[in-house]
Amino acid sequence: MMLDANALLLDHFDRPRGGGAFPAGAPGVRRGEAGSERHGAMVRIELKTGADGRIEDSRFSAWGCAGTLACASLVTEWVRGRTLESLRTAEVRKLAEPLALPPERLYAPLMVEDALRQAARED
Question: Which of 18, 32, 66, 84: disulfide with 120, CB 3.0–4.6 Å?
Answer without folding.
Answer: 84
